[in-house]
Amino acid sequence: MVDYYAEKVKFYAEKYIATAAGQAFKEATTAARRSNRKLPGLDSEALRSFNGAEGIQWGHEEVYDIFEILAEVAETVDFDLAISSPIPENTHS
Length: 93
Hints:
Elements: H1 2-17, H2 20-34, H3 44-48, E1 49-50, E2 53-54, H4 60-67
Antiparallel strand pairs: 1-2
């Protein structure tokens, strides 16, 4: 199972580097290393967008892809899901 997740991390890292955000992140880290500055952080927001450049837009397909192997050790069922409106904000203070 560890090899499975290592391959998924590698796959999504390569997918990220192929995006405009990935290239911008790569350039920013190279520039930071050359000038001995702190490297930029890589978090979920940077994966979606870095310095205004678009990265990976995470959706249910990507999440399913990452956790697909769990279907081998747990019972799964297909179901339809439709969201008709956003969840209202909590108005209680």
